[in-house]
Amino acid sequence: MAGIRIRGYGYAHGDKVVTNDDLAAMVDTSDAWIREKTGIVSRHFAEHRSNADMAQEAAEGALRTAGLTAEDIDLLLICTFTPDLATPSLACQVAGRLGTKPDILAMDVNGACSGFVYGCTAAAAMLVAGSARRALVIGSEKISPMMDMNDRRTCILFADGAGALVMEYDENGLFESVTGCLPDDQILGCPRFDPAIYMSGQEVYRFATSQVPEAIETLLAKVGMDREDIDYYVCHQANLRIIDSVARRVGVDRKRFYTNIETTGNTSAASVAICLSEMMEKGLLQPGMHVVCAGFGAGLTWGAMLMRI
Questions:
Q1: Residue 282: how many CA atoms within 13 Å on its side-chain side?
Q2: Catalytic residue numbers?
Q3: At a CB cut-off of 8 Å and minimum separation 6, what does 257 contact?
Q4: What is the pLDDT of residues 52-96, one digit of tens each?
Q5: How many Cβ atoms from other residues are within 10 Å of residue 126's Cβ?
Q6: Ramachandran region of residue 112, left (φ > 0), alpha (ψ -120 to 50) or beta?
Q7: CA distances from 188 to 25, 45, 196, 297 (A)
Q8: What is the CATH code for 1-309?
Q9: Which pLDDT does position 49 carry in this prediction?
Q10: Which of these, 36, 13, 10, 32, lies nearest to 23 by C-alpha position?
């Protein structure tokens, strides 16, 4: 187990709120149908903001709450599958905007909707190894341009946003994770040269509701903790029905599974980061608490991580 603590947090959203009724005016759907199938009421699209804009805002919030400057960061990881450019990376763009020192390691991590768990896992390993003192890990996605607005299976789900954490080594902290990949590019993906997300909803549901509880159980066994030792669980915000099913299978009170999908939609790699930032802002996460986060997405990737606040 790694000694890691969270020093700061921040988040950002797209600049346009899109309601279910707004979508019903574009595609054959309705507010009632979307609420029933997904739990989503509204979401944010970045109509006039780039991915870098949102990532920068989240990063600045994380640095501010940490009481640090950009020059205090040694490692900058941005978890995304929707960078503004093929190259340079989104991380390099944001590093330039923030004014980080020139010897920083900045790179993107594409783990799809598991991306933030992957990014935090990589950052924790480098912090423990002494390769960096402080890491800024950002989950940031601008998915709205990658959707077929005639496909109600996908266009009702996804949204834009960013969340960020500052992580640093602390011998009294705690971080552990489990990750994996079950290679499949047919169930969920987004071709680069035909940019429209495709998804088999039933297959994703089956994958998530079986793999996520198993990942959480494996993680808890790895650290020798019981499900009741965890104060909060944060799942990737893909679908409220998936989260309800995971809570039942893990066997804990659904109230301990934090959600914000109702007003944020599915922001892929940003979702867990936004949730954690909101929880810290609201004072839900206090020092000494334990939180388990789980992600799942295209790849098919999955992962779960445990942190002590």
A1: 9
A2: 113, 236, 266
A3: 232, 233, 234, 235, 243, 246, 247
A4: 999 999 999 999 999 999 999 999 999 999 999 989 999 999 999
A5: 18
A6: left
A7: 26, 21, 11, 8
A8: 3.40.47.10
A9: 98
A10: 32
Sign of the torsion formed by the C-alpha atoms of 19, 25, 26 and 32: positive
Pairing of strands 299-308, 290-297: antiparallel
Q: 297 in helix, strand or coil?
A: strand
User: What's the one-letter identity of residue 174?
Assistant: L
What type of residue is 270? A
Amino acid at 131: S
Q: Can you read off the two tokens belonging to residue 254?
A: 């659904």
**Phi and psi angles of residue 24, each rounded to the nearest 5 degrees, phi first:** -65, -20
User: Can you tell me the distance from the alpha carbon of 112 to that of 125, in angstroms, rounded to the nearest whole number?
Assistant: 20
What is the rounded distance in angstroms from the CA atom of residue 156 to the CA atom of residue 18? 10
pLDDT at 308: 95
CB distance 51 to 91 below 8 Å: no
Q: Can you tell me the distance from the alpha carbon of 228 to that of 208, in angstroms, rounded to the nearest whole number?
A: 22
pLDDT in tens, 262-281: 999 999 999 999 999 999 99
Give the tens place of pLDDT for each residue, 169-225: 998 889 999 998 877 565 555 666 567 777 777 888 898 899 999 999 999 999 999
The CB density around residue 202, as the number of other CB atoms within 10 Å, is 9
| The token pair that represents 290 in the structure block | 């334990």
Assess contact for 239 and 261: CB atoms under 8 A.
yes
Q: Is the pTM of this model over 0.90?
A: yes
Residue-wise pLDDT for 132-165, tens only, equals: 999 999 999 999 999 999 988 889 999 999 999 9
> H or E segment at 19?
strand 16-19
Q: Where are the domains of the chain?
A: 1-309
In what helix (H) or strand (E) does residue 12 lie, and over which residues does it extend? strand 4-13
